[in-house]
Amino acid sequence: MLPYLTTALLALGLPQPAAQNAFRQSMVLVAEEAGPALYQQARTAARQNNVPAALRLLKRAVATGYYSPETLQEEPDFAGLRTQPAWLLVLAQARTRQQRHEAQFDQPLLALIRQIGHQDQQFRRVAAEADRTYGPDSPQLRAAMQQQSTLDSRLIRQVDSLITVHGYPGKSLVGEYQQSVAFLVIQHNPDDKYLPLLTAAADKGELRWSSLALLIDRLKVEKGEKQLYGSQLGPAVNGQYQLQPIEDEPNVNTRRAKIGMEPLEDYLRRWSISYQVPTASLNPNPPTLYVAPRPVVDEEKSPVELIGGYEALYAQLQYPAAARQQHLAGRVTLELRIDKQGIPQDVTVVKSLGGGCDEEALRVMRAARFTNQAGEDHEIRVSLPFPYEKAK
């Protein structure tokens, strides 16, 4: 288990508000990795207010599994246990077990991984609190995730450097508690290029397959495809999260069980989603439970049109000095909503480049203006090139 995970986050879906969903990916990883039976039984007992049974089961789970004190403290199901005298003993037990386990590994590398893990969660914790206090699409949440987005672009470069030196920094290098830290940074900067590396790591036991399943689902959703494991949610509608469509949904729990994931109905209960796995002939879930399939809108097919055209927009981009020094080249992908007046709203980075390029892309796109023939707010994605060279 990761010791620095909050309990909240999911996918950047296709046309959904990115910041609203981005902070929840850590929650997904916690939910899926806290899968062993004793831990889940302790959660169930705690939800039923059976405090003695919950503490007894949790002690056994900590003695045999890898649950850090931070993970236990951030588990919402255990809120009712924290006033019990035995709770401090459970935390001490977890802390001692983690310290003994991690003493055998390279300490400078472990310290770096812990720091990366902490920073990966720094503003996601703030976003999680904003979600609880102000709601899933609040300005406070968006502000926290904007700060986290800037930090994410730096963290992925650190992880890339670690991978260059060590390969994937998984269980054999940093231990059971930290094996998913690098994965989580990649998950927050999703790219197909990491799949071969992570698949090989999972096959060798360096990374949990239940973690990799989240990235597989996320990449599929971003391409407009159905997910395989049901890990990805869409935006909240009237305060209720929706589920991204699932391929071969009647067999989703079979796929989940093969890689150590809990049943989908138990997983979705964390978001107050009442769910039943469909049969081949009947889906008992209401259509409103699912995100309506919508393709990614590309620039040429969009019902909104950029005033002046994209070549003129690209020409406004200034190549940041930091990006030049680092020889960064590529694209920053933005998600935004064009309002009825053609003004960009909620402009958010969904694929970062770093080196100041993200901030420059946000500056230019926020100043752009569109004609909007849709008659209503319309969401699009745009990729801006760095450095931009005008075609001759």
UniProtKB/TrEMBL annotation:
Pfam families, alphabetized: DUF6624, TonB_C
GO biological process: protein transport; transmembrane transport
Main location: membrane
PROSITE patterns attached to this UniProt entry: TONB_CTD
Keyword terms of this UniProt record: Cell inner membrane, Cell membrane, Membrane, Protein transport, Transmembrane, Transmembrane helix, Transport
Gene Ontology terms: cellular component: plasma membrane protein complex
Subcellular location: Cell inner membrane
InterPro entries: DUF6624, TonB-dependent_transducer, TonB/TolA_C, TonB_C
Topology of this chain in the membrane: Single-pass membrane protein
Taxonomic superkingdom: Bacteria
GO molecular-function terms, A-Z: energy transducer activity
Domain TonB C-terminal: 304-392
The family this protein is said to belong to: Belongs to the TonB family.
Protein name: Energy transducer TonB
The organism of origin for this protein: Hymenobacter lutimineralis
